[in-house]
Amino acid sequence: MNSKALVLFSGGQDSTTCLAWALDRYTHVETIGFDYGQRHAIELECRKTVLKEIRSAFPHWAEKLGDDHMFDLSILGQVSDTALTQDKAIEMQANGLPNTFVPGRNLLFFTFAATVAYRRGLEVLVGGMCETDYSGYPDCRDNTLKALQVTLSLGMDCPMLVETPLMWIDKAATWAMAESLGGSELVNIITEHTHTCYRGDRSIQHAWGYGCGECPACELRKAGFDAYASVRKTA
Q1: Which residues of 27-39 are buried (b: 16+ CB within 10 A; e: fewer)?
Q2: What is the pLDDT of residues 171-189, one digit of tens each?
Q3: Annotated binding-site ranges for ATP
Q4: Where does this protein act, in terms of pathway (predicted)?
Q5: 73 C-beta neighbours (distance < 10 Å), count
Q6: What's 98's DSSP letter?
Q7: Which residues are annotated as a binding site for Zn(2+)?
Q8: What pLDDT score does 81 carry?
Q9: For the chain, where are the alpha helices, taking DSSP H only?
Q10: In the chain, what are the domains?
Q11: Residue stretches of the annotated binding site
Q12: pTM here?
């Protein structure tokens, strides 16, 4: 059985929930993050805080939580013309995708993660991709990641399992998953310390966390939290 995992960890809600999922499931878990010139680079600072808070709040997980790896992929931001890597308005494009889509981002993330996993003897790659509540990014789709799993396994000549625990659930269920894994403490860590807002705004605190409240990422996070909180009230 697979026992060691590498989590693509941005410092956002989804990747933090996936980290908790992996810590609950595997005996050894490491994390990997990428600086790709994103406008919301504040997430890179948040991820350090989230890791510290998880280690402090969950000693049984801290024993499993290994090294954190950070890579400079700023070249991706240099070749991308998107609202996540340039100071421009967020809008839909003629191809039906929002201009927050960074072409090749997840493909590169998983490729670099697989390289690290190969070197460190980690058998599982975990990502927070989802095609239930998402912005339509083609590199978040289940078929894309299944194909990538095959490609990485063949290219490394080593079995690589790509796990996406959020793939078929919405944001409300993601909040609920966090509570089921780590109770109110984990929910509070996600609310207080993770970052999702595309604009990198941490000046305004909402019930669901910090953010501008208007970008697509904030809207999805808010809607999910409201639905989750509503169910909790009636339970």
Answers
A1: ebbbbbbbebbbb
A2: 999 999 999 999 999 999 9
A3: 9-19
A4: Purine metabolism; 7-cyano-7-deazaguanine biosynthesis
A5: 17
A6: B
A7: 197, 212, 215, 218
A8: 83
A9: 13-25, 42-57, 59-62, 74-79, 105-120, 142-156, 171-193, 216-234
A10: 4-171 (3.40.50.620)
A11: 9-19, 197, 212, 215, 218
A12: 0.94
